[in-house]
Amino acid sequence: MKAIVLGAAAGGGFPQWNCRCAVCALAWAGDERVKPATQSSLAISTDGAFWLLLNASPDIGAQLRATPALWPRGERESPITAVALTNADIDHIGGLLTLRERQAFSIFAMKQVHAALTMNPMFSVLSAPVRMEVYSGVPFRALEGLECALVAVPGKVALFLEGESPKLASDEGDTAAAFVSDGNKTLAYVPGCASLTDRLIDRLSGADAVLFDGTLFNDDEMIRAGVGEKTGRRMGHLPIAGEGGSLEILSRLPVARKIYIHINNTNPVWIDGSPERREVEAAGVEIAYDGMEIVL
Ligand code: MLT
Ligand code: MN
Ligand code: ZN
Q: I need a labelling partner for 201 at 20 to 30 A (CA). Which of 21, 27, 79, 134 fits?
């Protein structure tokens, strides 16, 4: 199976349109230590003919144009036949609005995510996508020869559905990990995760590649950068560094390829050679980039 990282960045992309934090400033200046990135999404195929998207980012137009494997084959004939959604955040569903123009495809998601699409009439412009409700941990055939399972992981509802005090790490199905298997190899895609529970660690340990939530390096990074009031944990994202952070757990995971994805613009791991980037790489974890290919 082959996976192409269409976008490696968290919501807003990198650099973010309205941000000149220390990391974005390098990108705006064209500093060679950083590479701009679009919002996170993964394309997967076993045969190169049909492709599954894991999430559809608002940057999907530019992502498709940059990825010849996803170009149309004939008049109104896209090789993308299915999209699986891990949650209903705008950076993961916004791109669906670009996939209208009379092309049918399947949308696989759990109940909560379908509900978020249904409540928003804008998504009714999609020409009859087949909306398939799937259940946590129950495998489904996403493409010929490719089985997928969405597994509920700790997380929270989409930002636009938050009430006064949202549950930050509920595992009721608002956020999922996607496990994709060709019968031989398994790839896990987890762009949002509030906590690495023993059960999740167990399941990830059986994968050949894990792409994991790398939103923030330090939990209070956005506060320290002066660009926000929220911690990573308040946003439903486990930070990379520190006690209980994802890096100490991922570093011990017996998985061949471990890759951070969904990286926020404030995260210093974007900077090649930064101490934070070196710490991640020394622990055996890679940093995703747009166009990265993972062949399993
Ligand atoms: C997140 O990952 O926390 C969301 O993408 C936030 C957002 O929708 O801006
Ligand atoms: Mn996001
Ligand atoms: Zn920034």
A: 134
